[in-house]
Amino acid sequence: MRQTRNARRAKTVLVAGGAGFLGSHLCEALLRSGWRVICVDNFLTGRMENIISIMDQPGFRLIEQDICRPLDFGEPVDRIFNLACAASPPRYQADPIHTTRTCVIGTLNLLELAVRKDARLLQASTSEVYGDPEQHPQREDYVGHVNCTGPRACYDEGKRTAESLCFDYLRAGKADVRVARIFNTYGPRMDPADGRIVSNLIMQALEKRPLTIFGDGLQTRSFCYVSDLIDGLMRMMDVDPNPGKPVNLGNPGEFTIVRLAALVKTMTGTKSDLRFLPLPQDDPRRRQPDISRAKALLGWTPKVPLNEGLKLTINYFAELEGSRIGDQMTGLAKSARPASGGLQNFPA
């Protein structure tokens, strides 16, 4: 009877962290695919402007809540995406205790919701579970090299514990849980002030400030454009049978930070110099996903090359910057207006 009842109603998906960078893109993709979407966000790092275009769409609902508090509502839920957690080092280190609580208690609350609703859950994990890796590229069977007491541990170990919970629920037969390990992702709707390398370099270039590079800039990252990542997440949620193991999602193209900075300089036309700063503690030296498992299980490979994705991202930030300057000019114009609405005397 459960399957018959479910077939008669619109399917509902809950996206925790749905007002964030990735979450908002996911909400849009799910709405286009015909899902009813419940977006849950506490707006600690999520932004209302990310979801303003879908707020009035039929089938979209926003719940403002921290997932560290249990979620309970009467309507059915078929699927749950857990993308709720600050993902940039400056943001997750700003309140490390809350970061750990979000990763562990928040994930536990969503797992319990999945049990109550008989819902499938996808946990957005991270390449940070590999720490500063001694294996390159990183395969899912690599257990990582993480400093459990360092400043990044709130996120790294928090996500590792969340994975442990997910696979315990799966092994116990309590819930259909999938775990995707997300590598560096970029694109429109990144917060320009969140401290991630792509948004940092682009904003600095657009504002004609020095481009800051930590360490010697020879450390590497692999950059996946947001549309590719969302496609991977949706495939991971849909695939049957359950993979039963984590799956890397990221672009295997490997770039040094210096090369990324050079691309940003060329594409923005900035004359800004590079400014080298000390490397933060536990910053990974190399990061590149082995996506063999994603190819085999999901038929997924990223499509958008870095040059193309950077162009789209730079255009987004340039529009934001233009809008910000326009708002400032409007504010100045308003402040210069006379208080009364009467005619003013001007010099001839």
Brief write-up:
This protein has 348 residues and is of the alpha/beta class. It has helices spanning 2-8, 21-32, 48-51, 89-94, 96-117, 153-171, 197-206, 226-238, 257-268, 292-298, 306-336, and strands at 12-16, 36-41, 60-64, 79-82, 120-126, 177-182, 185-186, 211-214, 220-221, 224-225, 247-249, 255-256, 274-277.
Protein described:
The chain has 348 residues and is α/β, with parallel strands linked by helices. Helices cover 41% and strands 15% of the residues. The protein is built from 11 helices and 13 strands. The protein has helices at 2-8, 21-32, 48-51, 89-94, 96-117, 153-171, 197-206, 226-238, 257-268, 292-298, 306-336, and strands at 12-16, 36-41, 60-64, 79-82, 120-126, 177-182, 185-186, 211-214, 220-221, 224-225, 247-249, 255-256, 274-277. The strands form 4 sheets. The protein has a 7-stranded parallel β-sheet, sandwiched between helices. Strand 5, helix 6 and strand 6 form a beta-alpha-beta unit. Helix 2 packs across helix 8, helix 5 runs parallel beside helix 6 and helix 9 (257-268) crosses helix 11. The longest helix is centred in the last third of the chain and has 31 residues, at 306-336. The chain is globular, with a radius of gyration of 22 Å. The chain starts with a helix and ends in a 12-residue tail after the last helix. Residues 1-7 and 328-348 have low confidence and may be disordered.
